[in-house]
């Protein structure tokens, strides 16, 4: 511990040094001056450290001493650590020291800031999700309307259903969407016969009892009643088929087949009762278009192909507005009758009815194949598959065309894709022939087992092929140009 005399001596020395350093002229050399100032600063730091160790440094409330014993006003301290001086070399108003700045480059947010940021992000995400959820119904309605205008009927039906479901959940009644949806379902029949009942139910939702009486909505009321009548007509046909007398009917029982065919036809002109929109009983007659199509289905199933063809021809003549119901089937029969122009005309009408329908392209593919124009046939197959990659019969028709071009291996790849989408007898028999021509005996054995297990009767033309009495080229180019 220094005594009082020693401390007084050192203090006098420091004062002399300070006076000496201040007693410099303006002409003093800059380099010498800098050296002197550095020595003075070092002396000051040394003395400050000594004083601090002895507890004799006095620091005001607005100052702090940093780790290097520098006294720093609080307003000059880093706003992050609060211990070091702000690095004003970055900018005059920069708020952080150089060390904190380096740390922020590597980890720009502290833990609490990260938590707050994540919370804000989550709130934003949920907010956007809520908005999207609330907006989805309106967006579906817009997409449906746009698709309808572009004649993309399948998409229109899909998005109308989505939009209607959305508003139903909100306990709202989207009357216009119901009506537009009903019209599109009627023109495309996505659920087959069940679509007619669906149309009637949707229109019941779309119109109140009062609205049903207004002339402006007569068109929808008529569509509803017609759909319900057609639905009941098909049900009457199925009731005839369920007659115990007609069970286990075979293609060889011609008398019974003709009896069922006539009994179905006799529905035309007969009356039935349906419920009106207001719940009243109204008398209508069975729908002739539905009767004719029922007769077609029955006749074709039991190989009465002439009768089946006549039913569809009459349908096309009397009820062309039902093109989606019968167009494809009639076109196939036209091709098999050699009427390629008529078949292609029906395909054109199907496209006009619904731009997203891939079945017309199957008609073109089949038609041009039978005319020997394999290039055109494959072009239409590709166009159809661009519209609908799940049209199994398009794969089958394309595979047949490739086989006729001598590309058996490629044909087998295509028919493999098609069979994965549609497992039915005609597909398997086509696959059997293509695999046989490609030399894939294992696949031939596999398919034959599938057909045997299903107890499917082998078509006459296929049996002749298997017996070596008919070449695949004749099978696919002569007569119907197909398995049946």
Order of helices and strands: HHEEHHHHHHHHEEHHHHHHHHHHHH
Cα Rg: 45 Å
Overall 3D form: elongated
**Low-confidence runs:** 20-28, 126-133
Helix content: 55-70%
Can you characterise this structure?
This protein has 484 residues and is mainly alpha-helical. Helix content is 67%, strand content 3%. The chain is built from 22 helices and four strands. It has helices at 4-22, 30-53, 98-106, 111-149, 153-169, 175-188, 194-206, 209-212, 218-241, 254-265, 288-301, 305-318, 323-336, 340-353, 359-370, 374-387, 392-404, 408-421, 425-437, 441-453, 460-466, 472-477, and strands at 63-65, 71-73, 271-275, 281-285. The strands form two sheets. It has a two-stranded antiparallel ribbon with strand order 1-2. It has a two-stranded antiparallel ribbon with strand order 3-4. A hairpin with a 5-residue loop joins strand 3 and strand 4 (281-285). Helix 10 (254-265) packs antiparallel against helix 11. The longest helix has 39 residues, at 111-149. 31% of the residues are buried. Mean pLDDT is 84; it is low at 20-28 and 126-133.
Briefly summarize what is shown.
This protein is mainly α. About 65% of the residues lie in helices and about 5% in strands. It is elongated and about 130 Å long.
How are the elements arranged and paired?
Layout: H1 4-22, H2 30-53, E1 63-65, E2 71-73, H3 98-106, H4 111-149, H5 153-169, H6 175-188, H7 194-206, H8 209-212, H9 218-241, H10 254-265, E3 271-275, E4 281-285, H11 288-301, H12 305-318, H13 323-336, H14 340-353, H15 359-370, H16 374-387, H17 392-404, H18 408-421, H19 425-437, H20 441-453, H21 460-466, H22 472-477
Antiparallel strand pairs: 1-2, 3-4
């Amino acid at each position: 511990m220094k005594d009082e005399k020693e401390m007084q001596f050192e203090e006098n020395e420091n004062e002399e040094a300070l006076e000496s350093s201040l007693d410099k002229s303006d002409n003093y050399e800059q380099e010498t001056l800098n050296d002197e100032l550095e020595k003075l600063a070092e002396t000051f730091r040394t003395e400050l450290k000594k004083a601090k160790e002895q507890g004799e440094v006095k620091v005001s409330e607005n100052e702090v001493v940093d780790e290097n014993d520098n006294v720093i006003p609080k307003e000059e301290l880093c706003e992050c650590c609060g211990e070091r001086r702000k690095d004003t070399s970055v900018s005059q108003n920069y708020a952080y020291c150089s060390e904190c700045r380096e740390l922020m480059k590597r980890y720009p947010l502290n833990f609490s800031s990260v938590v707050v940021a994540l919370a804000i992000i989550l709130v934003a995400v949920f907010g956007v999700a809520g908005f999207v959820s609330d907006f989805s119904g309106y967006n579906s309605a817009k997409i449906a309307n746009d698709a309808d205008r572009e004649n993309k009927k399948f998409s229109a039906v899909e998005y109308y259903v989505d939009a209607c479901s959305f508003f139903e959940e909100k306990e709202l009644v989207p009357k216009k969407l119901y009506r537009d949806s009903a019209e599109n379902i009627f023109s495309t029949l996505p659920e087959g016969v069940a679509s007619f009942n669906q149309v009637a139910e949707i229109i019941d939702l779309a119109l109140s009892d009062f609205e049903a009486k207004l002339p402006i909505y007569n068109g929808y009321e008529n569509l509803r009643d017609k759909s319900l009548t057609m639905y009941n007509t098909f049900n009457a046909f199925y009731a005839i088929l369920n007659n115990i007398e007609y069970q286990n009917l075979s293609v060889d029982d011609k008398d019974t087949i003709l009896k069922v065919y006539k009994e179905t036809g006799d529905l035309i002109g007969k009356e039935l009762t349906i419920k009106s929109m207001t719940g009243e009983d109204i008398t209508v007659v069975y729908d002739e278009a539905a009767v004719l199509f029922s007769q077609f289905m029955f006749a074709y199933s039991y190989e009465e192909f002439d009768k089946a063809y006549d039913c569809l021809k009459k349908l096309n003549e009397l009820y062309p507005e039902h093109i989606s119901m019968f167009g494809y089937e009639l076109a196939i029969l036209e091709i098999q009758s050699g009427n390629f122009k008529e078949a292609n005309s029906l395909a054109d009408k199907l496209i006009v009815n619904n731009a997203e329908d891939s079945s017309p392209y199957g008609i073109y593919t089949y038609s041009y194949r039978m005319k020997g124009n394999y290039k055109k046939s494959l072009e239409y197959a590709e166009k159809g598959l661009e519209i609908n990659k799940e049209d199994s019969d398009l794969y089958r028709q394309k595979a047949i065309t490739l086989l006729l071009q001598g590309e058996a291996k490629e044909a087998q790849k295509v028919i493999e894709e098609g069979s994965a989408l549609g497992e039915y007898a005609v597909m398997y028999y086509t696959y059997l022939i293509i695999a046989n021509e490609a030399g894939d005996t294992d696949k031939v054995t596999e398919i034959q087992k599938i057909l045997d297990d299903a107890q499917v009767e082998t078509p006459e033309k296929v049996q002749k092929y298997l017996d070596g009495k008919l070449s695949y080229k004749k099978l696919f180019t002569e007569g119907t140009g197909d398995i049946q």
